[in-house]
Amino acid sequence: MIERLSPVIAGWLADAILALHVGIVLFVVLGLVAIVLGHWRRWPWVRNFAFRMSHLLLMVFIAAQAWLGHLCPLTIWEQALRRQAGQQAYAESFVAHWLSRLIFFEAPWWAFVAAYTVVAALVIGCWWWVPPRRRGHSGITS
């Protein structure tokens, strides 16, 4: 299906996927910071079950992908779209140029697996340290 897209549309979609990817990275990283800070500041929203479940599942998926040696599906789709657009990955578009520098780093594969595993362990640990609350539960315990 990607082969039927015009190069311009493929480039726009690649940029949109990259922006989504950056948003997901920010959600995972800033979400963890917010949970820890929110516990300390007693922000009730950091215990929201839907927020916490989506945060946990996303991080476990990311760590599992790394352990299995797979690239993120968003990266695969973006690269395919960039090829369809006649672009080199992360070199042709202003959006791609700057956003990719925010989330893509040069490091050995094991460094990413280790980093994702540590973050996943922290996210899982926060389920016990700052347990989420389902609707109808109130009060914050330390």
Give a written overview of the molecule.
Helix 1 (7-41) packs antiparallel against helix 3. This protein has helices at residues 7-41, 49-68, 73-84, 94-103, 109-129. The chain has 142 residues and is mainly α. The chain contains five helices and no strands. Helices cover 69% and strands 0% of the residues. It starts with 6 loop residues before the first helix and ends in a 13-residue tail after the last helix. The chain has one domain.
Name some characteristics of this structure.
elongated, 142 residues, mainly alpha, 5 helices
Structure in a nutshell:
With 142 residues, the protein is mainly alpha-helical.
Helix and strand arrangement:
Layout: H1 7-41, H2 49-68, H3 73-84, H4 94-103, H5 109-129
Helix pairs in contact: 1-3, 1-4, 1-5, 2-5
Main beta sheet strand tally, sense and closure? none
Radius of gyration (Å):
18 Å
User: What's the β-strand tally?
Assistant: 0
Number of helices: 5
**Overall tally of structural domains:** 1
Distance between the termini: 52 Å
Strand content bin? under 5%
Question: What structural class do the secondary elements suggest?
Answer: mainly alpha
Spans where pLDDT lies below 50 across 5 or more residues: none
Shape: elongated
